[in-house]
Structure formats: structure tokens, C-alpha cells
Amino acid sequence: MNLATAMLKLTSAGIWMLACLALLVTVIWGIRFRKAETRLKENNQGLLKKNETYRKMLQHSSEGVLIVQQFKFKYANSRVYEIMGVSKNDDISRNLVDYIFPDDLPVVLENYEKTVSSNKIETSFKVRLLKPDNSILWVHIRFIPVILEGEPANLAFMRNITTQKMLEQDLHQAQRMEAIGALSGGIAHDFNNILTTIIGNAEIALMDISEHTPGKKEFEQIRKSGYRARDLVRQILTISREHTLDVQPISLTPIIKEALKLLKSTLPKNINIIQKIDTSVSLVKADSIQMYQVFMNLCTNAKHAMEKSESCCLEVELNNIVLGISDKTGCRELKPGNYVKLSVRDNGVGIDPGILHKIFEPYFSTKEKRIGAGLGLATTQGIVKGLGGHIEVNSEPGTGSCFMVYLPVYEEKVLKNPIITENEPVQGQGKILFVDDEKEITVIAKRMLSSRGFSVMTANSGKQALECFCRDPDFFDLMITDLSMPEMTGERLAKEVMQIRPGFPVIMCTGHSDTFDETAARKSGIMEYISKPYNLNELSVIAATYIKKSKAT
Question: Measured between alpha carbons, how far is residue 526 from residues 44, 163, 166 in Å?
């Protein structure tokens, strides 16, 4: 075998071996590729399953989850739609700014820019959103910086805190009202003492002058103004303090008239008030303070509706009405019968028909600046329905609104607690111990009661009165004492006196007190409780009544 043949055989064998080796490598790599492909598919399927799990977690999260980039919504889970009151078919890819309450926009912009610019800082804040129906929603938002498609973005978590926020507002409102109540109570006590002096001096002056004496009309005006100031103080106390319901037959006429007096001094001068008050309106069974609140709520809404109008008119009408079966008043909830109707009409901006059905919902407000908590009409409706009545509204945008309250007539025409009015002068007799730490009041009371035939001795402290009484416990027929006095209160003085002489008639009076329990006081033996400022006839009637009862026993 020559060299050429040997080389040829070697070359053929090498090629064969190389071919076999190549085939072997291909098979091995094929097997490895298939395994890698299988692993890759398994990994992809695992990732898909994980992605589906994460997607379901996001979709069913109790918090709203969204991605915001350049103030545009890039992603939002179903909870975001629920919180914002938007249908899933609606497009919410608009600018984030469109949903932010205008006053809260700086807060959102500041936190958004802080998060995006730093790419590290996580921020959280509370803001108000505007829902499609123009109602307000409080949310807590947490921004986390992320990168989306190579650009910075914010991953946001949104939580509805409207209920929590409203509870906080209610708590703050209650705390404010408590503080106002304490302040107004202190002012009322001192102010009523001053009014007692003013009204008393005016009445004494009127007793000393004849019908045609110069200055008589002026003194009458002083007394009248004093009574108006007294009523104003009582209304302030009514608004600022907690109130126990006292549902009884009442006439709405004096309540509406007194409220209108207050409104005239508080409403803008460009609002003209038209009164159509039927003075013979029937009685309704209600709480007087609640009805005052109902009327003031309706008038306050009317005021806000007319804020942008130049020529404003507030019309108040109170009258009797008979509802028949065929009457189309919108009062389907009411049975046919006799009702008292209170109407409050304004010529303001009116109410959009699209939200008219929402105005009685709690926390819903139509005011542009969202003044108040949106509870006025909801409270009003609750009070009216609780009294078996009905409230309805007619409104046209640009024309104004009219709220109408219907309350069933109380058929019996007798008031439970008749109010003492200024009747003919009452003459009396008997010995009275009058106690008050304000010297001016004791001087006035002595002159007032003495002019009606009573014999009056005064004391300017509880201790002085007790010493005077102890000298001869059977000398006096009646004691009238102030409640709030230094060293010894009127309540303690009354207990001491009644221990010495059981059954002795005591009348308690005060400018104002939050701690005095009238019911408990009556049980302890105190005959009557009267509020300052009192007038001459009221004081003499009460004194004569209890002295007569005391002597009869």
C-alpha cells in the first residue's frame, strides 16, 4: 500500500468520525434545546399563572390601584371605578386633574411631582374628588414611584375615607357647638341680668308717668327692645345647646315670626322678606325648637341660592290647607285631611333637575363652595317625617326654588302650657324675701313688687338671706331667689330654708344655667322656675299665686 492510498483511507475515516461526532453533538444539543424549550414553556406558563394571580389580586383589591403617567390614567382596577362612581364602560383615561376638587389640586400636584422627580420618595395624602354627579368624595392616596415603558410614573393606591371624614367633621362640629354652648351660656347669664335691669327700669318709669307725658313712647320702645333682646338670647341658646324633645300642641305663628326677626338682622340687606303669615293657623303637634331649626335650615338654603343675585326676594307663607284625594300636590305619602303648610320661596339660581332627587341625601350639597356639611335638608326631612308630615320642593334653574312643609293639624285647640301674657295688672299682698347678688336687680324688684301691694325685703347674698329668714321663719310668705350666687347658691339656700320651714314656697330664677335640673328642683320642693329677664306682671302673677296657695294650706 503506497503512501497515497494510506492517506486516502485515513482521510475517509477522519471524515466519517467527524460526521459522527457532529451528529452526536447535534443530537445532544437538540436534546438540551428541547429540555430548555420545555423549561421555558413551563416558566412562561408559570409566569402567566402568576400574572393572572396578580391581576386577580389587583382587580379584587379592597383599595383602588392605578398607574398615573403624565397625569393620565394608564391602568385602573375595578375598585377605582367603584370608588369614583364610574361605570367600567366609561372612559376614565382623562387627565387626573379633572377629578380633583379645585381647592385640593395643589396638594395632588405637589405630591405627584415630589414622587416622580425623586424616583424614591413615597408620599401619602388626603384629598377630595369630584364624582360624575358632582358630589364630593374623600380619598386617601399613596403614591409610589415606578418606571413604565422607560418613563417615570406613579403607582397609586386609593382608599375611600368619606365616612371616616364625615364622622370627623361631625365630631368637630359637636365640639364647636359644645364650646359655643358654654360661651353663649356664660354670656346669656350676664346679659339677661343686664336686660332685667333695663326692662325693670323701663317698667318702673312707665308706672310713674301718665299717658301723655313726654318720653312715654321712648320708654315703651326701650322695654320692647329689651324683650326682643331677651328673645334673641333664647334663640341663640336654643341653637347652641343639646335639646330634649318636647313634642306638644303648638302654633307655628310665633315661632316663624321670632325667627324672621332674627333673619332680618342677619340676612344681607339686598334680600327683601315677604311675609304671608296666617295668625289664626291651626295647632300642630311638634317640638318648637325642632320647628325653629326646620325653618332656619330652609331660609339658610334660600339665602345661599340668592348670593349672586342683585334683587333677591325671600317669601315665607304659613297657612291652613285641606288635602283631598284628588289633590295633586305631590304629597302621596299624606292622607287626606287638614294640614298646616309652611312655604319658603326664593328667586335664586334654582336646582338642576338632574340632582333634584339627591338634595335630601345626607352630605349632599349643591353649594359651589360646599359651605356646611350637607346635612341641613337631610335633617329637615327627618324632623318633618318624624312628625308625620311631608316636605317637597319645586325648582327651576334660573327661576328659584320653593320648599313646602306639610304638618297634620292637631285637632284639640288647647295648649298644654299656656304662655303668661301681659294681662291687666295683678294686685297682691304678702311678705316676700327677694334674693339676688346683683344689687340693681333687688332694687328694681322691690319697687316693682311693692307697686303691686307686696311687702318686700331684699338680700344680696344667700348667707344674708338665710340669716334674715332664721330670725323669724314664719314672718315671710314667699322667697324669690337667684340661682347663681357666690358662697351660697340659690338651690342650697332653698334647701336650708325648707329644712327650717317645710313646705315654704320658693321660686327660683336665673339668667341661665346648664346644671340646674328643673324637674329635680320641683321634686325637692321648689315651686316655680322662671327665666330672666322677667316682666312686672309675670313676677306679680307668680308671687300672688303661690302666696295664695301657701296661705290656703
Answer: 90, 47, 44
Q: Where residue 475 sits, what CATH number does that domain have? A: 3.40.50.2300
Collect all residues with Cβ–Cβ distance below 8 Å to 401 and sequence separation of at least 6.
Answer: 301, 302, 305, 345, 346, 348, 350, 351, 393, 394, 395
Helices marked H in 399-489: 439-450, 462-471
- Which triple of cell numbers denotes residue 120? 424614591
Span 380-431, pLDDT tens digits? 888 888 888 888 888 888 888 899 999 999 876 444 443 444 444 567 788 9
Question: Residues 162, 137: contact at Cβ < 8 Å?
Answer: yes
C-alpha cell of residue 183: 360661651
Would you say 154 and 124 are in contact if contact means Cβ atoms under 8 Å apart?
Answer: no
292 with 408, same domain: the answer is yes
Neighbouring-strand partners of residue 315: 274, 345
What is the helix (H) or strand (E) element at residue 535, kind and residue range? none
User: How far, in Å, CA of 449 to CA of 433, rounded?
Assistant: 11
pTM, whole model, 2 decimals? 0.53
Where in the sequence is the domain holding 525, given as residue range(s)?
431-552
Residues 6+ apart with CB under 8 A from 500: 469, 470, 473
88 domain-assigned: yes
Taking the C-alpha atoms of residue 286 and residue 384, their distance in angstroms, rounded to an integer, is 9
Residue 203 lies in a domain: no
Angle at Cα 49 formed by Cα 44 and Cα 52, nearest 5°? Answer: 125
User: What stretches of 330-394 show up as alpha helix (H) in DSSP?
Assistant: 376-386
**How many Å apart are CA 376 and CA 293, to the nearest integer?**
9
**Cell 333664647, located at residue:** 234
Residues 455 and 399 in one domain: no
Strands in 455-459's sheet, in edge-to-edge order, are 455-459, 431-435, 478-482, 506-510, 528-531
